[in-house]
Design brief:
Chain B: GO terms for molecular function: steroid dehydrogenase activity, acting on the CH-CH group of donors. The complex is a heterodimer of chains A (354) and B (638). Chain A is α+β, with helices and mostly antiparallel strands and 354 residues long. In chain A, 28% of the residues lie in helices and 11% in strands. In chain A, the strands form two sheets. Chain A has a five-stranded mixed β-sheet. A two-stranded antiparallel ribbon of chain A has the order 6-7. The chains are: A alpha+beta (354), B alpha/beta (638). The interface between A and B is large, with 62 and 71 residues.
Chain lengths: 354, 638
């Protein structure tokens, strides 16, 4: 009936661990979570793994399968070759508790920091009236099953512990978007809040979150971009900008692209001090060469150019005075996406031991 | 031995065990009453089994059909439960559901809308009017998320007022309670462990609300998640409370049994309505052999006639695949037991050979996509393997209808949601569970809060009880000679699935009790490998004893009730018996063993019973009760 297949599963805890090999029976029509359950019932009774509904509805069994963030219950074994080794690792962005279980409390903290629905004071329960077309936009985001795969894959916090305090992540951008689009929500500053307090500006729309969403929510196109757009509309309204420019005429150049490092990023957050590695290559040729041949944990990676903010700490955005068309990257000018893979600080779990 | 002084201690006014719909609603109410409240969640916050509810939440708001009102809803609920429901619970439920749904909108819920902007309501089996508030097919998720976000918003208020999110309401996620602690007959607290670290935790609290859901994990084929191990049922029993109606479990006749990736997932009845037929392993369309006499006139006798019905229902009789759920389940069960089942223990549900691929995809889009995505089963090309799936337990903690307070030898214990019994009688209507959670969650939370207020002094947790709880919890880790908890669970599931399943017989039930007794001894010696940190084997070992005692209750009550009603079908007593309608079977613990007693059902108030036609009542009531009803009617007429 079943065939034996090769699995490599990360076992360990916060003190370290490694991938362990298992040969396990796989039957037709099974998913990765079934195989993990079989392992628990046979070779590895204490293998830690979260799961609940096993039907793609609760978002508990998030894991990284062959390097991709997936739900274990929705990853069919038939998608792998017969002789392919299936590697299962815990979510990388969150601290490991044990085996495949990670500490996802980051997400619950961010949820608590996101302002709640503000109901209209003068509408009693039962009198809420909304049109279907108006609720549908928010309903798309309320499909979210909180699997946190979008949070896990987001390169702003993946391997960037230092960005976590200032960055809420895609899950909570769509929560903000959902409330912003809620027909009866009375808070009017959802976008500004997302920009100022949730770190929306860190997002540079690589759409990784949308790609991994098991609910197929268009996180970027329908949630993040509209949130950014209106924030940009208000903040960078050309007339407002022109006004401020006229009154402060003659001060520092508005669009000095490379001088921004001293001004810091447009959004608050601890950036200074630590090395910033997703910016691209090291400027040291030797380290560069090493990076090409493997991971060098000690290579010096310089800070990227910070975003081109003006003296108000804001990105200039007008083609009238700026030195190029369209907006500057909030990540600075020397970062291009996608980043070259050899410049990502991907740590192979086996190497984590050292 | 672990010293009890090292155990983390918390003091709360109200502790809510369970973070599904009922638990969260109870916690909101307790917190709104100003009580310091803890929510204990076996999984992460927001992952509760409530998310699986698809259809909607039944509430007689009358948005789609203005003739709907609580009386109609009440009637539907009592009919669905075959008049075994606790009438007061059904009444409160029908009356209060609309407010509970509207309240969710003030928490931020976004239901689908009618044209004039109200909450849309859909039709569902057993409901006379369109009544289910819904959000596509993810209503349960909407409910959980809304309540979760309301709790967050209350925490934000507390943060502004007291400087801490956790000041008055705190969620203990991935925490399992293993014992309730008593001071005499009063609840004094709860003892459990953090799944993450394996460290113990002690809650001292005068009031505990159980909202732990159901018991489905004791069955081989179930749509329930791993958490459904009957924890609340067992905690209540051990604390001195009663369980009622434990013989009533809702099975769906066609759940997938293979492949494993979708085992337990329901296949909607419309597959059969659209032409799907059931075949055994010999390829025979067997349903024609199972048409009971009472249905003989309405159902086709030949395949040719049955097939004509789909296009010409006026001149042909219905195919027997469309018999009521329990008949279909009984037929599948018989085929499998006669050795004509599939290797996985089901039968084939074939629509692929009956309809074109295009038509299947058009008529059953979500079925097609679900099985394609989750299991790579193409229902347009191959038959499905289906069998009865355990879905919901009607039975549970016997409660005072108005307060949710557990009946029995314990005070300070409350229950709401699937863990409580009575509301749904012998069979639950679809859509009634989500509104049940809200109505009785709120009530239990509120009454737990006022109970905590009413106490002149707090009950005290006795140290020896804590030490005993620690010892019990650690025992499976310290043994290395016992069996694996996974083996034991499989064996338990086999006993319950094969012998106390959808169709029951006296001999099999008696056999099940013998086997459960054997299992009890084996479970007492279970050993779990590994350490205390996030060890699922250990967690299962601790859950097993709950599953076992609850299974014993179900088997005993099923053996005792010699009739068939709702979610309890006895092959040897196939008819409904009005005398049995007057009786609840009540389980309690005497020492270690389950004690079963009969208790008369509370009598419906005159103005409620008068909502029904005599002709309908005659199907359910005894002659004696009918005479009483006639007297009432006459009195009202005068």
């Amino acid at each position: 009936m079943g065939t034996k297949r090769q699995f490599r599963i990360w076992r360990g805890d916060e003190d370290g661990g490694d991938l362990q090999d298992y040969m396990v029976e796989v039957n037709e029509g099974e998913v990765v979570l079934d195989v993990i359950h079989r392992l628990q019932a046979t070779d590895a009774p204490d293998l830690a793994c979260r799961w609940n509904c096993k039907a793609g509805k609760c978002g508990s069994c998030s894991m990284e399968i062959n390097g991709k963030p997936r739900l274990g219950c929705m990853t069919r074994m038939s998608t792998f070759e017969e002789n392919e080794t299936v590697t299962v690792a815990p979510l990388r962005t969150f601290p490991v508790i044990r085996d495949l279980v990670t500490d996802v409390s980051f997400n619950y903290e961010k949820a608590r920091e996101t302002p709640a629905f503000a109901p209209p004071a003068d509408v009693p329960p039962g009198d809420y009236r909304m049109q279907q077309v108006d609720v549908e936009r928010s309903q798309e985001f309320r499909k979210c099953i909180e699997c946190f795969l979008c949070q896990n894959v987001c390169h702003v916090i993946r391997d960037h512990e230092e960005n976590k305090p200032a960055f809420s992540g895609p899950r909570f951008f769509i929560r903000a978007a959902e409330l912003d689009m809620h027909p009866l929500d009375t808070r009017t500053d959802r976008k500004e809040y997302a920009q100022a307090e949730m770190g929306l500006g860190y997002c540079n729309i690589t759409k990784c979150c949308t790609e991994v969403c098991p609910e197929h929510i268009k996180i970027t196109d329908n949630g993040i971009i509209p949130m950014k757009e209106r924030a940009v509309d208000r903040r960078y309204d050309p007339l407002v900008w022109l006004g401020s420019k006229i009154f402060r005429r003659g001060e520092t150049p508005q669009t000095s692209v490379t001088s921004a490092r001293a001004a810091g990023p447009a959004t608050p957050g601890p950036v200074g001090g630590s090395l910033h590695s997703h910016a691209g290559g090291s400027h040291d040729p030797q380290a560069e060469a090493q990076a090409q041949s493997g991971v060098n944990w000690h290579r010096e990676v310089p800070h990227p150019t910070a975003p081109a903010v003006d003296e108000r700490g804001k990105l200039p955005l007008t083609e009238l005075t700026f030195d190029r068309a369209a907006a500057p990257s909030p990540f600075g000018d020397d970062v291009t996406f996608p980043l070259p893979p050899e410049h990502l600080n991907f740590a192979h779990p086996e190497q984590d031991k050292h | 031995m672990t010293t009890t002084t090292r155990i983390e201690r918390h003091h709360y006014d109200v502790v809510v065990i369970g973070a599904g719909g009922a638990g969260l609603r109870a916690a909101i109410e307790a917190r709104l009453a100003g009580k310091k409240t803890a929510i204990i969640s076996k999984s992460l916050f927001g992952k509760a089994h409530t998310v699986m509810a698809e259809g909607g939440a039944a509430a007689a708001m009358g948005n789609v059909n203005p003739r709907d009102n609580w009386q109609v809803h009440y009637r539907d609920t009592m009919r669905g439960g075959k008049f075994l429901n606790n009438f007061r619970m059904a009444e409160l439920h029908a009356k209060e559901s609309p407010q509970r749904i509207w309240e969710l909108e003030t928490y931020g819920a976004l239901f689908d809308r009618t044209k004039n902007g109200k909450i849309s309501q859909r039709n569902f089996g057993g409901h006379e009017y369109p009544r289910l508030a819904h959000v596509g097919d993810r209503t349960g998720l909407e409910l959980i998320r809304t309540l979760q976000q309301k709790i967050v918003s209350l925490q934000q208020e507390d943060k502004r007022e007291f400087g801490s999110y956790d000041a008055r309401i705190r969620v203990f996620s991935e925490t399992t309670v293993t014992e309730l602690l008593l001071d005499g007959d009063r609840v004094a607290g709860a003892f459990g462990y953090y799944r993450e670290s394996g460290e113990f935790i002690l809650f001292e609290a005068p009031a505990v609300v159980l909202a732990t859901g159901g018991v489905g994990r004791s069955y081989k084929v179930t749509s329930n998640s791993w958490e459904y191990t009957g924890d609340g049922h067992a905690l209540a029993l051990r604390a001195g409370a009663n369980l009622i109606n434990m013989e009533f479990l809702q099975f769906h006749p066609t759940g997938m049994v293979w492949p494993p990736s979708v085992k337990g997932i329901l296949v909607t009845e419309s597959v059969r309505g659209d032409g799907g037929v059931l075949r055994n392993s010999e390829g025979k369309r067997f349903m024609f052999d199972y048409v009971p006499d009472v249905f003989r006139k309405q159902y086709a006798e030949t395949e040719e006639e049955a097939d004509r019905w789909y296009t010409d229902p006026d001149n042909n009789r219905r195919p027997p695949e469309l018999l009521p759920r329990d008949e279909v389940a009984r037929a599948i069960n018989s085929e499998v037991k006669a050795g004509r089942g599939t290797p996985a223990g089901g039968v084939y549900l074939d629509i692929a050979s009956r309809k074109s691929a295009d038509e299947i995809r058009r008529r059953l889009p979500s079925m097609y996509h679900q099985f394609k995505e989750l299991a790579d089963v193409d229902i347009t090309k191959e038959p499905m393997e289906v069998g009865p799936t355990c879905h919901y337990v009607m039975g549970g903690v016997e409660v005072e209808p108005d307060s949710g307070a557990a009946v029995g030898h314990v005070r300070g214990l409350f229950a709401a949601g699937e863990v409580s019994g009575g509301m749904h009688g012998s069979n639950r209507l679809g859509g009634n569970s989500l509104s049940d959670l809200l109505v009785f969650g709120k009530r239990a939370g509120g009454h737990a809060a006022s109970y905590a207020d009413s106490l002149p002094e707090r009950p005290k947790v006795a140290l020896p009880a804590v030490e005993a709880a620690v010892e019990t919890a650690l025992a499976p880790l310290q043994r290395d000679t016992g069996e694996s908890p996974y083996t034991l669970q499989q064996d338990l599931q086999a006993v319950m699935g094969d012998l106390v399943g959808i169709i029951r017989r006296e001999g099999e039930l008696a056999d099940a009790l013998v086997r459960l007794a054997e299992l009890r001894e084996r479970v007492a010696k279970v050993s779990a490998a590994g350490g205390r940190r996030y060890n699922p084997g250990w967690h299962l070992a601790l859950d097993l004893r709950n599953m076992l005692v609850v299974s014993e209750c179900t088997a005993k009550a099923a053996l005792e009730r010699r009739e068939s009603r709702g979610g309890h079908t006895r092959e040897d007593h196939p008819a409904m018996d009005p005398q049995w309608r007057r009786v609840n079977l009540v389980c309690s613990l005497e020492g270690d063993s389950v004690n079963l007693a009969r208790k008369p059902l509370p009598k419906m108030r005159p103005e409620l019973i008068r909502l029904f036609d005599r002709a309908e009542l005659a199907k359910y009531l005894t002659d004696e009760e009918l005479t009483e009803f006639d007297a009432l009617a006459e009195e009202a007429g005068n």
